[in-house]
Amino acid sequence: MDSKTRIYSLDYLRGLMASSIMIFHFCTWQIGEFSSSHILGKLGIYGVSIFYILSGLTLYKVYYKKFNAPTLAIDVKHFFIKRVFRIIPLLSLVSIITFFAGKHHDIERLLLNITGLFGFIAPEKYVAVGAWSIGNELVFYAFFPIVIILLKRHIKLFFLFCALMMVLSLIFSAYLLNPASPLGEPNQWKLYVNPFNQFYLFLSGIIIGYLIDQSKFAFLKTLETRTQSFLIIIVVFILVVIPVSGGEIMLVTGYNRIIFSILSILLSGLFYVYRGSFGSLINGFLKLTGDISYSIYLLHPLCFFFLQRLLKINSMWIIPVSIILTYISSYLIYRFFESVFVKLGNRLCSKQTDKQLI
C-alpha cells in the first residue's frame, strides 16, 4: 500500500498488538501466567486474532481493485511473489536461529518451517515461538485470490463461504476444543492452531473493508473524530472489564469465543475508519511499531532468551531491557533485512510486468 492510500490507523493498531503480545510473553515468562480475566491474558490470545483481521482488511484494500479480469493471472502471480518475499525470509531466519539455539535435530521440521509448508501440512510443528500464526497466514494467502474473485463476481458464494468458515470455527470452539483441558495440552493446541479455526477472522477483515467501502456502512468514515474515539474507548473498555473465569481455554471456547471475536472485529473496523491524531510523537512511534510489527512478533522471544540464557539476566529488569532490545533489533532487521527482500519482490514483479508489455 503506497503512502497515498495507506491507512496509518491500521499500522497503529498493528503496532499496538505486536507490542501487547511481546509484553504478554515477557511478563508470562518472567512472572507467571495471567488469568483469562487479565487484560494481558486477553491480548495474548486476541492480539493475534486482530492480526488476522488486519491482514484480511489490508489485503482487501490493496488487491480488490487490482484483481481485474484482463490482468488477473499476472496480478495473482505478483500477489504470491510479494507475499513470499515479505514473509518467508524472516520466518526462515528466525526458524533457523531458534532451531540451532534449541539444539533440535528434526531437519524435516526445519525444512517445513523455512519453506512455510508447515502451515499446510502440520500447523503445530512450528519452530519459532508464535510462528504457528504465520503458518496460518500462509494458508489464508493461498485462498485469498479465490476469495476476492468470489467477492467481485459471485458475492452470494463469497458470503456463503464466509458463513461456512464461521460455522466451522464454532464447531472448533463448541465441540472440538475441551474447556475442561488446558489450551496448552498438545491435542488441544493442535486443534486451536488449525488454520480453519482462525480463517473466519481473516475473512472478517475482508468483509469489514467491503462493507465500509462498498455499502451504506461508508457513513462510519464521516463520523466526527470524537465519536470514533468514543466508540473505540467503549469497545476497549468492554474488552478489558468483561469477566472471564478459568484458564486461557475459556477465552477461545463457548460464548466467549463469539464475544471476543466480535469485539476484535469491531475494534479493527473502528481503527479502519479512524482519522484522528494522537500527536506527532505518538503517531510517529505507533507508525514505526506498525512498520516493524512482523519483526517484533518473531524476534521478541529471541531477544528475551538471549538476555536470560546468555547474559544470565533473571531479575525484573529483563522485561524493560528485552523490550528495548526488541525494538532496536526489530528496526534494524526491518531496515536491512525485511525491506531488502520486499524491494526485491517488488522489483521482480516490475520486471515481469515490463516483459508483458514488450
From TrEMBL:
Keyword Hydrolase attached: yes
Entry GO CC: membrane
Transmembrane portions of the chain: 12-31, 43-63, 84-102, 126-151, 158-178, 198-219, 231-252, 258-274, 294-311, 317-337
Domain Acyltransferase: 7-335
Keywords per UniProt: Acyltransferase, Hydrolase, Membrane, Transferase, Transmembrane, Transmembrane helix
A Pfam family that the UniProt record links to this protein: Acyl_transf_3
Segments forming a coiled coil: none
UniProt GO BP: polysaccharide biosynthetic process
Protein's UniProt name: Peptidoglycan/LPS O-acetylase OafA/YrhL, contains acyltransferase and SGNH-hydrolase domains
Keyword Iron recorded: no
Molecular function via GO: acyltransferase activity, transferring groups other than amino-acyl groups; hydrolase activity
Organism: Pedobacter caeni
